[in-house]
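Entry:
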Amino acid sequence: MVFGAAFGALHAGGHRSAGRRRVIRLSLCRPPGHHAGRDYYGGYCFLSSAAIAAQAWIDRTGSRCAILDVDYHHGNGTQDIFYERDDVFFASLHADPAFAYPFFSGYAEESGSGRGLGANLNLPLPLGTRWETFSAALTRALVTAQRFSPAALIVSLGVDTYKDDPISGFSLETADFIRMAETIRDAGLPTLVVLEGGYNLKKIGENVVAFLQGLEPHITSKTGLDFPRKKEHFSDPCRH
């Protein structure tokens, strides 16, 4: 299951956009991946699917990309992998690690290191965050990402920001996931959505579909998936 999730993200992330047409792809990953770092796992995560997809994009295109993590918890593993690199911009909106997992990572002062200095943006948010506060942080993250001039965007989508998620503490409504996606859509970049957290089993599907409808209004709850027909080699993002 772990390798299947990572392979799905890798396959989706390896596709070029078609000319100027905005391409949207979805990788339904389980388990999630954004807490898995270069040499560790945690938070139900064993391989960082978003990082693997980003590396696949770079291997295929030679172009920069950005990762936007909107999970309730900070994507410490994804940050760790790219913290010293300047070819991937990482932005994360999450609960303040002063009171939320992973506690040791996700603070605003973490901005990258070495060549990666300035390519990392953390926007920790308070307990009970509603759409107005989340929206302002999202806009800031996207504006900052655009200055990096990425050729593609990978969204680590966690729907544990939902108000009734059992292990989280934000207050987003289902309709807010539509608004979130519409804001992201306006960036106009080829976009891969990689599923991260979400633990209200009765609402996770509805919230994911709401997000997808914000990206592409014609999307319904029936989603077609395609699979690769041949094996391809992609490099390890942790070795760069």
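The radius of gyration is 16 Å.
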